[in-house]
Amino acid sequence: MSEAYAHDTALVSEGSTSYDRFVDGAIALSIVAFATTLLALVELVPLGTAGAALGNYFLTLFAAVSGGVGLTAGASWANVVSVTSQRVRGVSGGLLVTTGLLTAVAYLTTVTLATLLGFVLISQALIIGAAGISSRLGVIDTEPDASAGLLAGGAFAVIGTAIGGALGGTIVGFDSIAWLVFPVVVGAGLATLTIVPREDLGSTIPVGLVVGTLGVVVATAAIGIGWQWNPETLDGGFTGGVVIPIFAAFGALISAWAAAKCRAGFGAPGREYGAFLIINLNALLMVVTMVSIVLFVLTRGAAYATRGLTASALTVLVLLVPLLALATEFARSRIGGGEWNRTVRLVTQIAPLATLGAVAAVITTVLITGNPIEYGFNYQILQNRNLIPRETAITITPNPEVGAVILAVVASIMWIALFRNYGSLRNVGAAFPRAESVRQLVPVAVAGMAVLIGGVLLVGPTPAGVPLGSVVGVGVVAAGTLAAVGLAALPVVGVATSSGSIADRTQASAPLFTLGVFGGLAVLTAALLLQPVTGHTPGIAGVDLVAVGALFATLACGLAAGVSAYARRTTTETLQDRLLGEETILGLTGAAGCIALLGLHVLATGSGFTVLGVSVTTKGTLSWPMILQPYIPLGAEPGGIMPAVVGTVWLVIGATLFAVPLGIGAAVFLTEYAEQGRFTAVVEIATNALWSTPSIVFGLFGAAFIIPRLGGNESLLAGMLVLGFMLLPLVLITSRESIKAVPDEYRNASAALGVSQWETIKSVVLPAAMPGVITGGILGIGRIAGETAPLILVLGSTLNATESVNVLQGFQFVAEPPFIINDQLLAASASLPTQVWAVIAAGVSGSPQMGWASAAILLSVVLTFYAIGITARTYFRRKLNYE
Fold this sequence. Notes:
By secondary structure, this protein is mainly alpha-helical. It is built from 31 helices and twelve strands. Strand 9 (609-611) and strand 10 form a beta hairpin. The radius of gyration is 35 Å and the shape is globular.
């Protein structure tokens, strides 16, 4: 091992010569060429681009590089971050120089991108060849090994064989036996040039020959943009639009490898640096490929999918609340390791919050100014086999309205999140005798209202002529609402009427916080549930009493949270600071719960609620035809794919309910109870085989075995079971591996405390294994959500459905086994995968843009599942580390 490899300081030495800068420029040129060829391969930058268009591309690239390098350089100069590596500085400078030169060449000449890539490959070949010869002649100080190695020789033998085969086929034709001489000679020659000379020549001369050859072929248009090759033995062929980017990308890869070895002085450091660049460029290739696929589908379907999307500014702000809460929590948490710079950490923490805050501010200006935000565009529909363009727009309106569904869902999410963050205020604060009496009365009052609800359901609202619903029920609802408002106001009243500092008074009022929030929510919920049962909604001056009560309770809880937050800023005691923080969270929890009850009240009564010009409506102000509407056969607008979305959701729910409990239970049995032997080995082999089984086999199984036992027709239940069988192996495999990864010390410690095996599994093993279990399950769900082949066989390929399956309302009780039936589960349903297949692949009548829009929505659903899986894994890992 060389001395340079043994010491990290030698790898990033402060001394840097012009030779180093020269090679850094070659590495930078390889990176630019590789990135450009990837863009050309997906046709973001066509190979025929020339003149000003090509100059604009390289100017944009130069601006991006200048911004990134300039920002990093400025941060390094200001000691925000430390960039001491001369290689990083050299490659960064090389990126600036190469993008600047390519921009100038593109503007000053008329060469196309394909020709320019050819000259770039030739330049790389000359630079690398010169670097290797300089090392061999001793012009620079390097430490090469005796040979580049057999592995490199074998790789170049394969490359030479491919080049020789193509060359021989071009010269003598593939039908001639003499064609075989070329691949043998060229492959053996490159292998010899790689293995026999010293490493500096063996790592550069073969690369220079290969890259130079590829560059000459591309630059001279021997393989041009319009070039085609259609072998008789293949159904398809090869085009210049594909071959040229592949040549350029491959040449950039091996050029970067050779230049990296030259830059590190060959030997072990050179091999390390070369492998580092190859791995990172391949990672860039995978990322670009994945992003290109996603962007390709999304861009093709975005116009149709978002046509007519309209939302009020208030609705958008409500939807932003959970994101702002997540960004706030992220800003409060500590990210990065101890080596992170303080300013960098701070910027990273506040960036999401600042971005969302800017978006919220822009949306708020719509409410204030009354000027909507509108983005117009065109989409196409299919009429009489002709594509008809239509105009549409995405609009954010200034209406101060929000739908009750959105309000209730968002507020419930916030209530759950806040309640999970709330710790406990038990045995905290002063004693309030009257409050204790009220605390004892709250359960009695809630139980009384529950009994009244049950009585009205059993005997009706007017039993024996007694106005149980219209008089008693309305009175109880009114009294319960007023009591809930009074309970919610208790924390503020307690702080205001006590003595001492604001922090001491707020802490002493902790019992009132718990009584006010939990008691108020319980009583208000009971009053809300009593309304639809009695059929009467008490009101004052035409305003619903429960809605007004929920509003005042929200204000009271929010005021309590504000008081405790202010008190927290005035204290210097750590324990008091934590307790006041719990009171703040509890107040916010009460406010979120009351807002959720307000939304539920509007939904239950069917009457909107307006205060100070802000309205909560039953219909809502979010209009998304593609998602929220079914297909409209004869309408002016085509409608949407809501039945397919609903069908996909029910398929995933059913498959999950079937596979996840069964898979986790089987994993627990096989890992914790079953004796490890042949039986468990056979089960492991079987589950691995099932997971690798093609999806169409599961579809055939469902068509041959499941459907005949479910009435002989394609059905939603058959699709659930088939997807459940597909998901089951993955859940079993990931759960078992996660459980096996839990250290035995956890089990032994629990057993030493006298805990039973099942309690140990439930309380110790499964929580520790939960990150892997949840991640594997959700990733599997993301896969089955996009499966098409099995659904075609067991679910059918319903296209443009006009009605969604209503599983919940389909349940019926019967007097014969199985006592519960559901016709909706036994009926066929639309789904997103079959919708995409029917429109695009099978050529069924429908707008092509509708197919791409369906594909974009399906892709969004799958990516959402993956994001949930990653988030869940991160959450549980942090929770385990914290505990």
